[in-house]
Fold each of these.
Amino acid sequence: MSDVFAVELKNQLPDFLFNKFMLFVGKKKEERILKFRRREDAERSLIGDVLIRSIICHQFQKRNCDIAFEYNSYGKPSLKDLDHIHFNLSHSGVWVACAIDSSPIGVDVENMRTIDYSIAERFFSPTEYNDIMEKEGRERFEYFYDLWTLKESYIKARGKGLSIPLSSFSIRKNHSEITISSNREETWYFMQYNIDPEYKFSVCAQNSHFPQNLTIMHPLELGDRIPG
Ligand SMILES: CC(C)(COP(=O)(O)OP(=O)(O)OC[C@H]1O[C@@H](n2cnc3c(N)ncnc32)[C@H](O)[C@@H]1OP(=O)(O)O)[C@@H](O)C(=O)NCCC(=O)NCCS
């Protein structure tokens, strides 16, 4: 079964915690984090890294110094020498999310902001665009973000970024039943979590067993789970 975690960053991280967490991450990540101009972007990226480290340390009894990341040619991170563990991260607004499984998995969280539906006409499949436009008002708005995050979670599970055209597959959501049609053989499953009315939160996995609820963690808890 997969596991799904989220951390809410309501306020700026206190400096002592930011500095403590910076000691957990690798040199390259540290350099990347220091390049962010906005503190909140640096924090989200830092928390993502520390979140997956805390999960690996806690669930697999690893030491932080034994955790290293490698990246595929599209930038998807994976765990070096732990290729039986798959994970993915996402951050948007105040939320940082992490999904972990024994087979490929993708997660996407998005803060729902006013949008122009021509984006869906331009980038989504015709079926998806029609499904969106059949709805009205708030329902249409939410459905757009359902599809956006579901599509993004699928792309992230496959790990090939936007080299997979968004219109090359179609996702439909009928109540809680979510299906994908594409010309590929593998079967993918989807799950969504309602943790915040201003956000959509979607997970895509090859494994059909999702937890009913995700685990929300406080930033302070993360460091406690990372021994030396
Ligand atoms: C990079 C991409 C994988 C996700 O980008 P995103 O939605 O902006 O960002 P998210 O917060 O969800 O995910 C970022 C994390 O995904 C991971 N990631 C990076 N490249 C990845 C890839 N190819 N596949 C899966 N995960 C990836 C990293 O952990 C990254 O965290 P970091 O930036 O702190 O290192 C890519 O799909 C992209 O650029 N998407 C653009 C979004 C878009 O236009 N969507 C259209 C609507 S469907």
Amino acid sequence: MIVFDLSCDGGHRFEAWFRSSSAFEEQGRQGLLVCPHCGSSEVAKAPMAPAVPVKGNARADAPAKREQETTSQGGALPPAIREAMQKLARLQAETIKQSTYVGDRFAEESRAMHYGEKDKALIHGKADAKEARDLLEEGITVAPLLIPFTPPDETN
Ligand SMILES: [Zn+2]
């Protein structure tokens, strides 16, 4: 097996294993090489990282190096997860459009609605972990926003 560092035309780097150097070229010709980050099939061997065939007797020092590479790619997400995150981000954006931003008054507003002092409405705002826990203990449903969100009063 040979591992190649590959990169796509979008600048993503990833590595892939091939049976042989010719298997890599063959898959490339057939358009079977696809970037796992963006799906681009404009994939070539990454510059600056010459492909080194891993021979049986060269395996000894390979695992440590490969672990390092994996760590450095920690920010990359498999396409399925990326798609799910995008879907989630869209849903969250839709929800926020129908929701009122209450900032630091989140806990206060949530309680007011829960105890019937205010009409129920969808709100979002700031709560620290303790506030969120207190609300949950009082039986008030709160959920963290899963996608980073910039509060309107912090945009500049
Ligand atoms: Zn890519």
Amino acid sequence: MRVVVLHDGNDLAEWRTHARALLADGLLPSDVQWQVGEIAGLLPADASPADDKPAVKTGTVPREFLSLADTVLAHADARRHAVLYRLLWRMTHGERHVLGIASDDDVAWCEQAAKAVRRDMHKMKAFVRFREVKQLEGSVFIAWFEPSHAILSRVAPFFVRRFAGMHWSILTPARSVHWDGQTLTFGAGAQKGDAPNEDALEALWLTYFANVFNPARLKVQAMKNEMPVRYWKNLPEAVLIPGLIRDATARMDAMVQSAPTTPKKHIPAPVERIAMSLPDGSIDALRRQAQQCRACPLWEPATQTVFGEGRDDARVMVIGEQPGDQEDLAGRPFVGPAGQLFDRALAQAGIARDALYITNTVKHFKFEPRGKRRLHARANAQEQAACRPWLLAEIERVAPKAIVCLGAMAAQAIFGRSFRLLEQRGQWIDLDDGTRAFATVHPSYLLRLPDERARHEATAHFVRDLSMLCEVMT
Ligand code: SF4
């Protein structure tokens, strides 16, 4: 029996080095015992086979096996090294295609383990909740999470992409990871008490979660499958769930019994003022909170939340529809081709972009993958409704004198579903709170016009619409 002691039980390179040496020595899987950690008296003999033995050629194994092994090694089950070595042995001793036999016990075990690891990664992406800790140098966001498997280094790049502009740490019992805006570093494990319990934005998040909860769509088992109860203890919104489930039937009965509402035709609805309790502070607080929004499915495939930008005391707020591919990557609204056309039109109208506050109706990029391309897809009514509190909160904070809506989605968010852009374009409408607003086309519409002359005329019309803002700019 040979005992192999691994320093890091999750590292493919280390496991592979040992496995190749075992194969070269002809060690049967049943003659190998795998252990993790430095065990006194065992380590020197088998710790570094590559150091004191010549490189051994053991033949190649399918790339598919290495990929599977890499994922399986993140699993917490102590049998993983032995099962993988048994598979490797079989592949190199007459069963090269065993991976293609789904009913094989070893293959099935590895596939199940890999699936569990991938599921754990998905849950971590969905259920990490950062809490803000204010420091002299700025805010740091800290989250506590208890993964079932060794997935931290695999999931960390996702959070780097998603929260590139923030300083954050994710603490877990086994390891911690820190991002300072430039460098990702890993450290020792931590305890739950090392992470903050709540922050100033928690009340907003809870109110928001309760507001977007729809009792008519409640499916308790499906919810528990997607959001397993074991994660609830670290989710701030989990305290609301039992009460929301308990009251769902009564709320749904009330919805059924209430009289249907008939929208008034062609009468713009006023902008609602937000009913949520908002945190004190600047629009930056909202922006940071929105980075963690999970209120609709659009957050997951997108790179980041694209929140509004500009002066938080702007006299004019510009509302577009939703971010595009380039906005998603840059994390800023109106920076792609449509944004560049918009900038040129603003310049022709004599308006400085930096005097405005510019945002979108929906804050995440929705797309359909086509090969390496991401094709724009329109956010549906549910996604628009889920994102509406953020738009209303921005209007509440900036309190502009005038609003210009670019495109039908933005216009209907402000004036109501009965608004017709073609009929009411370029007409000032007084909202109930005194804000003046009008709608015009979205610059992407101009880019799509196939005829150059038509595009030229439509752009001139667009510039004339934007010129209407000059009277409220001062
Ligand atoms: S699109 Fe809006 S509601 Fe949906 S996750 Fe993004 S910020 Fe939240």
Amino acid sequence: MRAVVMDRLGGSDVLRLSEVEKPMPGPGEVLIRVHCAGVNPADWKCRQGWLSGFLTYRFPFILGFDLAGTVAGSGEGVTGFAEGAAVFAQSDVGAGKWGAYAEYVCVSRESVVPMPDNLDFAQAAAVPTPALAAWAGLFEDGGLQAGHKVLVHGGAGAVGTFAIQFARIAGAHVAATCSAGNRDYVESLGCEHSIDYRTQDIPAATRQWSPDGVDLILDCVGGASLPGSLDMLRPGGMLVSILTLAEGDPGPDHAGAAQRGLRTAVTWSKMPSGVQLGKIAALLGSGQVRPPRIETLPLEQVAKAHDLLQSGSARVKLVLQVAD
Ligand SMILES: NC(=O)c1ccc[n+]([C@@H]2O[C@H](COP(=O)([O-])OP(=O)(O)OC[C@H]3O[C@@H](n4cnc5c(N)ncnc54)[C@H](OP(=O)(O)O)[C@@H]3O)[C@@H](O)[C@H]2O)c1
């Protein structure tokens, strides 16, 4: 099968289009013919070796956390996945297995979910990792409740796109940071108060919206991009940071927060993810949530996709077209 293979860690030049043997589904796995693979910031971080604390790299290695495609087979003990059915999933690449930048991939059945009818393969491939991270951050780690006020830092990115919509559906009030050109976009997702992070003082703008502070901050950017974050919380409020693995990202000030009676957490999408992705699929299928804006590139342009994402120049979510 055709796949983007890495023989070592490094820059985007280590990504090599190659022919490798088609995988066979093992017990508990579904074989999926990949139509589209989502490209995440985690992909280039994984390529650089930043995920070595989480997984064991075995070369040749195939990247790719997110995919949409059709069922092509099932391993021992797997029932209920009809051949040809459209599905989407977060791959098992986070466990060191081969990922989605390939014509075929084997994924644990617990992570494979029927694709909503109203999405095409490219839109569906843009969903799993960012949506699952937003879900975990808001609901599993952030304890978001109806009526809460939440600030989504990085509202125009893929995680932010889902976080704004999920929070709004849960009955929360949402403010979000973004650049000026994305204000209309985040407001169209349900954000009540957009803050231009390039020109505005974020804590001041947040206080203007919610003078007593907010219940929850979901930081989808990390690093030093949100100074004064604890000052924006109401007493007892919570700062949840998406695990970015960014070099020099200190994460939340857990001790400082605890001293002030505030709560902090670092969040990430959990594996297997089928239960949560199933709930997300229902929201997409009913039209309550829409996927992020996407641009599709052919698999051959995988290095370009990585370079755009790594340099911060991708304006929309990138998806690789693997099969027609
Ligand atoms: N641990 C996990 O499970 C997990 C899962 C998913 C993502 N992540 C991490 O979460 C982060 C976001 O992922 P993503 O997929 O949403 O990335 P993305 O789609 O590439 O997001 C990029 C967005 O970040 C915004 N941004 C950049 N600098 C900003 C700043 N200083 N203030 C506010 N917004 C800023 C940009 O907004 P403008 O265009 O408006 O400038 C851009 O839209 C990445 O670090 C990723 O690795 C972790």
